Amino acid sequence: MRTDDLVGLLSTGITPVRRGTAARRFGISLPIAMLGATALMAAVFGVRPDLAVVVKTPIFWEKLALPLCLAIGALIATVRLARPGTKVKAAWPIMATPVLVVWIAAITIVVTAAPEERLPAILGHSWRSCPFNILLLAIPGFIAVFWAGKGLAPTRLRLAGAASGLLASSIATVAYCFHCPEMSPAFWSVWYMAGMLLPAALGAVLGPTLLRW
């Protein structure tokens, strides 16, 4: 078969891709992720009873900023990786900066604390359950974000899967902040990050299967 014939055969029946497809798909999946995580959080764990007081403190918004910034960076990465040949670019510093800030704050807290207070600052009261709680809340978003990505054209499937999993888990962590009583960056730097990395790792493993097109 000549090259011209092959090109003609491959192009037969091709229709233009509708503009704004990515925006439409993620415009559906992101509200599902947020509403699903929030509903699960309220039903399974409950909103913390002192929320009205805590939201008036700077530390609560600092806690919320960590997963929120990661969600923004992961969204940029996920959308870009859903297109063939694109690079993540600005998403990396958006995701890395809040993590670095929290780690610096955590190290400062641990170093300056009395020796007997260092481990409790890291473990808090819920270290055993925190990562798995976030993993649970990430399930609706995981399904919705992978649905959005599969309908596009990702080529780096493991990296796209990891970004999709991180997007789902960071959205879930935003919702979890309204339940979680832990207010120390030393806790967030370990256990929030572990909770967000679990779905990201799962996404990397399942990406070649779930995002294949």
From TrEMBL:
Annotated keywords: Membrane, Transmembrane, Transmembrane helix
Domain of life: Bacteria
Pfam families linked: NrsF
InterPro entries given in the database record: NrsF
Transmembrane feature ranges: 26-44, 64-82, 94-114, 126-147, 159-178, 190-211
Protein's name according to its UniProt entry: Transmembrane protein
Organism, scientific name: Paraburkholderia phytofirmans (strain DSM 17436 / LMG 22146 / PsJN)
